[in-house]
Design a protein that fits this description.
Layout: H1 3-7, H2 11-25, H3 29-36, H4 40-48, H5 55-65, H6 69-73, H7 84-89, H8 97-124, H9 143-157, H10 168-176, E1 179-183, E2 190-197, E3 201-207, H11 212-228, E4 234-237, H12 245-258, H13 261-274, H14 281-291, H15 295-304, H16 312-318, H17 323-329, H18 344-355, H19 361-368, H20 372-382, E5 384-388, E6 394-398
């Protein structure tokens, strides 16, 4: 390691990175000290920034923490957001140590993906286009009314009309400019996370272990936090009991944004008029599939709109109604899960950086969260695109992601 590079990084910054990496690895200061052959107080001093670590010590700690050396000594930017682990610590509830360690590992993975995304963009000169609205003021009214007003305003701003939203993930990334990842989180109670900063922009993580329709609801929920509480880190935990007003508003926004009253009422009445008998659970399942939400979410929304009798969901739940089994009985297809837990654009940028020799095979594998062989195969796949030839046949042709689409001058 270049000694000048090490000396150029503030020891406070290195200390914070060491602390975050150690905690994400689930190690104590004593365990780190034993691996390094020093006293625990030495590790404490390093993490506080009171003692600058030697290059050999950083090598050892990087291996111990499962990090790249560059992660610990990369140049600090004045506008760089602090560690996600530090920011999320303020909004997490007290948990047992084992749960906290697992959660911090998920948070660290989220941070790595966000930072790598920006690094790839800077490396290739391809910033993510953003269309951020001004933050909405949700004060002065009830959470539900505020949520409905913001949902309507956003649908109008994005030109969505009042119909179902197909590719919610793609829309939020392409039309808004959010960075969204699906991470298989170790704690199934965690539905999603949101954070925003000047250097990373708005970032959302949803739990890839949850059903696809729940992931969509979580994306919309976190989008509310981006719209009204942009620079406040947030973790969404599935819970019973009393829900804070801010979370009630986020839940209400997700309902209004994904299931607008106007189109849902219109479609419901159309189905009802076309039937000779009453509405059935199969009809509700079909509507839920159309809007990309769970059967429970659709049933409760229809109750909210007085289109179904209040208590319908509770009645079906008491009778042990199984939506998944019913879906198969009426041959309703499963919601298609995203083809990857990573944004297509992120994968394409990583492939371009690797093919251009800007990152190593190992770095590519880390960025894609897979083994080296799979990473290289994906890089080759992403570097090509299907286009028709003159005779109408489809063929694979290389694409230059840096080339302008329209000639200038």
């Amino acid at each position: 390691m270049d000694a000048n590079a090490l000396m150029s990084v503030d020891p406070d910054v290195i200390g914070e990175r060491l602390s975050s990496a150690r905690r994400a690895r689930g190690l104590t200061q004593l365990q780190a000290a034993e691996a390094l052959g020093v006293a625990r107080t030495t590790i404490t001093a390093m993490e506080k920034g009171d003692r600058r670590p030697r290059a050999s010590e950083l090598y050892t700690l990087a291996r111990l923490y499962g990090r790249q050396l560059g992660d610990l000594v990369r140049p600090f930017r004045e506008d760089q957001t602090p560690s996600f682990v530090v920011q999320f610590r303020a909004v997490r509830s007290d948990e047992n140590p084992a749960t906290e360690r697992r959660r911090e590992q998920d948070i660290q993975r989220f941070e790595d993906l966000c930072r790598w995304y920006v690094e790839l963009e800077e490396m290739l000169g391809a910033p993510l286009p953003v269309r951020y609205p001004e933050e909405y003021d949700a004060s002065g009214t009830t959470p539900e009314r505020a949520a409905e007003a913001v949902a309507t305003a956003e649908r109008n701003r994005l030109g969505l009309g009042d119909g179902p939203i197909g590719d919610l993930w793609g829309m939020l990334e392409t039309d808004v400019g959010l960075r969204i990842f699906a991470i298989p989180m170790q704690d199934r109670r965690i539905a999603g996370m949101f954070i925003a900063s000047s250097d990373l922009g708005g970032c959302i993580a949803v739990n890839a272990n949850h059903p696809h329709d729940r992931q969509r609801g979580t994306m919309a929920h976190e989008y509310w936090h981006f719209l009204v509480e942009r620079f406040k880190a947030e973790i969404t935990v599935l819970r019973n009991g009393r829900i804070p007003a801010s979370e009630r508003a986020a839940d209400a926004f997700a309902r209004y944004f994904l299931m607008p009253a106007s189109s849902l009422t219109r479609r419901f009445l159309h189905v009802k008029r076309a039937k000779s008998g009453p509405m059935t659970p199969g009809d509700v399942l079909t509507l839920a599939h159309l809007y990309g939400v769970s059967f429970q979410a659709m049933t409760l929304r229809l109750e909210e709109l007085d289109l179904l009798k209040t208590g319908t969901w509770d009645m079906l739940k008491a009778k042990r109604f199984k939506p998944d089994q019913a879906r198969k009985l009426i041959d309703l297809p499963e919601h298609e899960s995203p083809r990857s837990s990573l944004p297509y654009r992120y994968e394409t940028l990583a492939a371009r950086a690797y093919n251009d020799g800007l990152i190593s095979e190992g770095q590519l594998a880390r960025m894609l969260g897979t083994d080296r062989i799979s990473a290289v195969l994906l890089a080759r796949q992403r570097s090509q695109d299907e286009q028709p030839t003159d005779d109408g046949e489809w063929c694979q042709v290389p694409i230059d992601l840096g080339r302008a689409l329209v000639d200038v001058g």
